[in-house]
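[SOLVED] Predicted holo structure with nicotinamide-adenine-dinucleotide

Edit: marking solved, answer below. Original request kept for reference. I posted the sequence and ligand SMILES and asked for the 3D complex as structure tokens.
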Amino acid sequence: MIKIGIIGAGAVSEQHQLPGFQKCKGTQVTALADINKKRAEKLARRFGVRSVYADWKKMIQKEDLDAVSIATPNYLHCQMSVYASNRGRHVLVEKPMATSMSEARRMVQAARKNRRILMVEQTHRFHPQNQLAKRLIAQGKIGKVNTVKAKFGGPGPEYWSPEGKWFFSKDAFGGAMADIGIHSMDLIRYLTGKEVKEVFAYLGTLEKKIEVDDNGICLFQFADGTFGSMEASWTTKPQLMETILYGEKGTMAVKAWVDDLLTINLAGGKVLRPRIPRRSETGSPYEYFVHCIKTGEEPFISGEEGGKSLEVILAAYKSAATGRKVRLT
Ligand SMILES: NC(=O)c1ccc[n+]([C@@H]2O[C@H](COP(=O)([O-])OP(=O)(O)OC[C@H]3O[C@@H](n4cnc5c(N)ncnc54)[C@H](O)[C@@H]3O)[C@@H](O)[C@H]2O)c1
């Protein structure tokens, strides 16, 4: 039996993590920690979790856990991840994995040193239409991808987690680009297999009365000289997530979240709508994390990989603050 302890009993725990781990064979969430103990107790009752803690360190010290899943505000991920790795636990950490590259590196090093898995929960890599799109691009269906245009937008975190005020705090690494731009950028890197080398971004607070960005646009160039744009928005109604890839032989549009669609418009006028498999090739992020624990497989969304997507988003914040292009190392 794989035993999991979750830190954070908020929206993502309730809606994704607890139901997700419940579906994993031979796996049990045996402990839940949250400074809001009442909230954790309520979720524990609902999902049959045995132990509840207000202090996450105590949970890791006292419980016989194989893994810790971190579902707390972004600024807490690093300290929790490093602590859990150093106590021999595998770690699943929510996106964005950290608030800086030095934090991300510390998390990767702690997991490596202790020979434990560190996986970042970039959920969109697990959607069947995205996995199929990646396969078709790799097979050359639209030829070499020259440009990409992506947008991830919704009404904002107050509709997802009404109590999650930290989403609007600069210190907590809140903001639309950090929150959902990271999903879009990670998906772009996953689909194309390309690395970003340079970024220019505009970020702004266009509608909400908050101290962080509610909209942003990031222009980026890949290492091979091709380029694209990505928008993150907390003021888009209705919500959408769309990635359009323009290739030598045609255009591919991948939509998710609201409706799952994959359309390929080939140069000659032919339109393909490949059937989207019902199941993810890898299972859910939780099934895949458990699979990696059992087999020792390095997750395809490891700490290093999650760190590369984070680096682009951090570069976008730096570019917007300085008004300059930012080159990635
Ligand atoms: N992968 C996805 O698709 C996805 C979706 C939503 C959120 N997320 C990520 O999940 C994380 C949590 O988001 P959320 O929407 O659940 O936020 P939330 O505000 O709803 O929940 C966060 C929880 O963490 C608890 N917490 C705060 N400080 C703590 C501490 N020191 N110790 C223990 N618990 C503490 C809070 O009390 C709260 O219950 C964020 O990193 C977010 O970006 C990922």
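OP edit: The mean pLDDT is 97. Thanks to everyone who chimed in.
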